[in-house]
Structure formats: C-alpha cells, structure tokens
Design brief:
CATH architecture of the largest domain: 3-Layer(aba) Sandwich
Order of helices and strands: EHEHEHEHEHEHEHEHEHEHEHEEHHH
Strand order of the largest sheet: 3-2-1-4-5-6-7
Oligomer: single chain
CATH topology of the largest domain: Rossmann fold
C-alpha cells in the first residue's frame, strides 16, 4: 500500500508514534510519505527511509497556514496515487480529512484524545464555546472518515457516546513501544541520583502534564523531610516557571530540571520510578515506555491511563489534581525498594504482553486493508 501519514505536533508522543509506524510499515514493503511540521523531531529518522513533506501545520488557529497546508495535502493526494491517508491529532485530522474527501482518498484518523474533550480542562477563557465548536467539527468530519483509530477503549466509548462515528467505524489499536534499553543511562541524572533512588518526569513542560500538582507534591514531601531525588526532563512553555519554582523554594537540593535532548531511553535508564500527573491523556506513550523500561509508574487516573497502569500492581493511580495523593504514592515508591522492584517487573511484563510494535502494526495493516482504495483490498 501507499500511505500518507500526516501529523502536526513538533515533538512528543504523536510524532514518535508516527515514526515507529512509518518505519515498521516500510519494513513490511509498504510505501510511506510523511507530512508534518518542518522542524518535527522525527523528521531525520523518517527521511532515512521515506519522503518527508514539510507543511505549515500548527496547533493554534491560523486560517492562512491551514489553507496553505490544505492545498499542499490536496495536491499531494491528487497526484500521489495514495491508497489511504492516516491523519494524527486534531489539526492534521482537520486538514487531511477535508483534502482526502475532496480527492476521493479514504481517510483514517487517530485523534490521540479528541481535543473537544480537553477544552473544559484547559486554563483559558471560552472553554465552553471551544468545546462545542470542536465537537461540532469532529461530528461533521466524522462523515468523511473511513475509520477512527482510538488509542484506548476510553476514546472509543467517547466517539460513540458523542456521535462522532457509528460503531463500525471506530476501532481500538493500542500503541506499541520498543525502547532501546541497550543505551547507557544519562550521565547527568546518574551523577545527581547518587546512591538513589531517583524518580522522574520525562514529558513536555505544558499545561496538560500536571506540573503544578507535581511541584506541590514534591514540596509537601520536602516539608516533611522526605523529598526524594527527582528529575524533571523536558522542554516547553512552562520551563521558566518550573525553574523559578524549584530555585526559590524547598526543592533546590532535591530536584533537577534538565532539557530533553535526543532519545528517551537514557533518561529512563537512570530512573527508579516514573511520575506523570497529567490533567488529560489519550493513552500516554511516555508511561508505556517507562513500563517497558521496567519502571513502576505513578500517574493520574485520567482518560485512557487506567487502561495501561494497573493500580497497586504495575504502579499507582491517583486522582487528578490531588497533590496529597501524589506525594503519598511517590513517597511509597521512593521508600520501598522491594515494592519498586516488584512493580517494575510487573510493568515490564505488562508492556511486553500488550504494548508491542509488531502487534500494533499487524492491527493497523489489517485495518488499512479494510479501508484502502479497492485496488489493494
């Protein structure tokens, strides 16, 4: 098959997922063209095996950029003899599905969590209006979507309950991850950890990821004299705010803030536990990578996350925004070596059983063949 993979986030779980899917499909003999932002993190890796088309896809409303991107995608689909388009995340799903409809190419869409479901949880004005506008857009575009690929059962239920598409046009395909655990641990984190244990957060420094709750929980532990060594690894708009809070408060000695660079595995290899107190998530790929690396996870019980983390077996689930519960569970992970080891083994076994790349690609390949242009069915 000849498939156009379209995405808009520059970094994070979505473009990493596109990279893994693209590489795996090429290895199986399919032809992949990827379209995404010019500075997307996985662009060099994708260009090693496939054509990459840079597009002005942006997350914020920009009619001019959206129109330019739409015209590029429309022309690409019209001349490229594609069997299907697979769009990832909201903006690529908007531009890509309209272009696919206009050119007669079947469209597959992975929301990676419908944006309308998050609007009321974001700290900005107009949340109610944004929710209804985004929901209306998803319902309209659902008419022109051959299949929605839900990243979790939670997302499939939402698609049905909110009348995005009928049941026969939404299917769950869990993510697959394959971290390279042969890479050495990050030296800066290893020096900081000393004799350990070291807990950590490796994700974008954005509103979504629950950083205020994380910092409050760490401050509570520090006040009680139980602050674990903790590494915050990431880039994003909240970096300065996080740095200032660490520097001026009780966390200066126990918390390290470092930028994310390169690959996730060296950071995970240096940790003893992974923490992600997100305010919304589809299915957090970062959590799956941590589990595959053998780390117990403390995460907020939000959206699809409870489908990955088994409470008290592979880690702990805590209520969203609950700094007290987060502090309690981080303290347990840091203070009980046997618990860490038991949960880490269970997490790695769970990842190996459920979140593998070959299983994910098998399911996507089967789904693609069902919806692709008739010549390849």
């Amino acid at each position: 098959m000849r498939v156009l993979q379209l995405f808009h986030p520059v970094d994070g779980g979505v473009p990493e997922h596109v990279r893994v899917v693209s590489e795996s499909l090429v290895a199986r003999g399919h032809a992949i063209v990827a379209g995404g932002p010019p500075g997307a993190a996985p662009r060099p890796a994708i260009e090693a095996h496939s054509r990459y088309v840079p597009l002005p896809l942006v997350g914020h409303p920009s009619p001019r950029a959206d129109l330019v991107a739409y015209r590029h995608v429309r022309d690409l689909l019209a001349t490229g003899r594609f069997d299907l388009l697979h769009a990832h995340d909201q903006k690529a799903g908007l531009v890509g599905r309209i272009a696919a409809h206009r050119t007669g190419v079947p469209a597959v869409y992975t929301p990676h969590l419908f944006v309308y479901r998050t609007q009321r949880r974001r700290p900005r004005r107009g949340a109610h209006v944004r929710h209804h506008v985004n929901l209306a857009v998803e319902r309209r575009l659902g008419r022109h979507t051959a299949m929605i690929v839900a990243c979790a059962e939670d997302e499939r239920r939402a698609a049905l309950a909110d009348r995005i598409v009928p049941a026969e046009r939404v299917e769950v395909v869990l993510y697959g991850v394959a971290p390279d655990l042969s890479l050495p641990p990050d030296p800066e984190l290893m020096e900081f950890r000393g004799d350990g244990p070291l807990l950590g957060f490796v994700a974008g420094l954005r509103d979504q990821k629950g950083l205020p709750t994380l910092l409050e929980a760490l401050e509570r532990l520090a006040t009680d004299g139980r602050a674990p060594r903790f590494a915050i690894v990431g880039n994003g708009p909240l970096r300065e705010e996080v740095a200032e809070r660490i520097e001026r408060g009780r966390l200066r000695e126990s918390t390290l803030l470092v930028p994310f660079a390169g690959r996730v595995e060296p950071y995970l290899r240096a940790l003893d536990g992974y923490v992600l107190p997100s305010y919304w998530e589809g299915m957090p790929i970062a959590v799956l990578e941590a589990m595959a690396a053998g780390l117990p996870v403390v995460a907020s019980a939000v959206d699809g996350t409870p489908e990955a983390v088994s409470h008290e077996r592979t880690g702990f689930l805590v209520p969203v925004h609950d700094a007290g519960a987060l502090a309690l569970r981080m303290g347990q992970i840091a203070g009980e070596p046997e618990l860490r080891a038991r949960m880490g083994r269970a997490a790695q076994e769970e990842a190996a059983a459920r979140f593998t790349v070959p299983r994910m690609v098998d399911e996507l390949e089967t789904l693609y063949r069902r919806v692709a242009a008739p010549t390849v069915r």
